[in-house]
Amino acid sequence: MNPTGSSVAREHVLSTRGHALSGDIDIDTTSHNVRSAAAFFLTNLARIVGDAPVTAGDDEFDYFVPVAVSSLHAVDQQIARLQLEVQERFDIVLTAMPIPFAG
Amino acid sequence: MTDEEFSALAQRLEKAATVLRAGDSRLQAIARRYYLAYSYALQAAEKHGVRFRRGVVAADRRLTHQALPNVVRALYTSRNSGPVLGGGPGITRAGRLSDEQAYAYADILQKDRKRADYGYGTVPEPYGVTTADERLAWANRLVEDLRTLL
Lengths: 103, 150
Known about the structure:
By secondary structure, chain A is of the alpha+beta class. Chain A contains 2 helices and 5 strands. Chain A has helices at 27-49, 69-90; strands spanning 10-12, 24-26, 55-56, 63-68, 96-101. The longest helix of chain A is centred in the middle third of the chain and has 23 residues, at 27-49. Chain B has helices spanning 3-22, 26-47, 68-77, 99-118, 129-147, and strands at residues 51-52, 84-85. A two-stranded antiparallel sheet of chain B has the order 1-2. Chain B starts with a helix and ends with a helix. The chains are: A alpha+beta, B mainly alpha.
């Protein structure tokens, strides 16, 4: 997640990853939405991947999560659906990259 | 990109995917086929003037691989998707993917492209033949749909 870290009351909220996507909005509302979106995302990600350790991502993805290759095909599809659901509910883009391992 | 340049690029990518799949380089074949879908989406987005919403930083206004799922969904529906403003007539052909499927397939295929190019993970071939061919078919479906916008 990439919170804006700005305290400006009204501004154009920027970027597409881990940020609200709307234009002029209250920054407190934005921060709350980002936190809510991240909580929703991580809660549901845990339902998909069980107790696999979720870690911070890189400049491409918000989160990494290890996934056995035997589950990868299904998990990829579930995560894609979750990403879209978060975007529709919260107007925020969050992404997770399953990292395949043998198993 | 001119129509001739685009056609040549599409032919190269198609050939590369076919050769790699025939050689059982499954993940690399998926990556090349993904690039084919990406190229069609880019060409359609350019033709129909797809734009990003106000407030999105300039660096993120490029049609990146990361943005592709939303670009594709906006092209399918002609409505806004995430940071992308809808454009063009939408895809109306019978049997097209749903916009949710199109988003999901574009998202998964761009992750496969990054797995192939950047080596995320430790498994060089994470998919068996059936799964690999299913993912190649996803890319084909995207290409068939996006082609109708050109």
